[in-house]
Amino acid sequence: MREYDERLMTRFAKSANVSSMTTMNVSLPDELKIFVDERVTHDGYGSTSEYVRDLIRRDRERGHLRDLVLEGANSGPGVVADAAYFDALRQRISTKD
């Protein structure tokens, strides 16, 4: 239930930032239309459009995450995150108070 609540709040927060909308028409075979209708009902989306917008946002976020992962992979080796590394982080945090 918590995942549903977080998803609902995410959709609410994102919809508050929408300034304009453009209409798109999508043709689906009956099988996919039934699937979409079931997801809308099961996951508590207000409409098919809301469901599709959420899918598109998630796809965009996945693409961004993929870009960040590739950027990290191409950045070369980082520091070793061993006990000394975390001790130094704790020390920095405790001195900032």
Question: Layout of helices and strands, plus pairs?
Answer:
Blueprint lengths: L1 H15 L13 H14 L4 H26 L9 H13 L2
Report what the structure shows.
This protein is mainly α and 97 residues long. The chain has one domain (2-16, 26-95). Helices cover 70% and strands 0% of the residues. The protein has helices at residues 2-16, 30-43, 48-73, 83-95. The longest helix is centred in the middle third of the chain and has 26 residues, at 48-73. The protein starts with a helix and ends with a helix. The relative contact order is 0.07.
Share of residues in helices: over 70%
Tell me the overall shape.
Answer: elongated
Order of helices and strands: HHHH
Q: What number of domains?
A: 1
- Total beta strands: 0
Structural class based on helices, strands and sheet pairing: mainly alpha
Round the mean pLDDT to the nearest integer and report it.
Answer: 88
Biggest sheet, in brief?
none
Keywords:
mainly alpha, 70% helix, 4 helices, 0% strand, 97 residues
Give a quick rundown of the structure.
This protein has helices at 2-16, 30-43, 48-73, 83-95. The chain has 97 residues and is mostly helical.
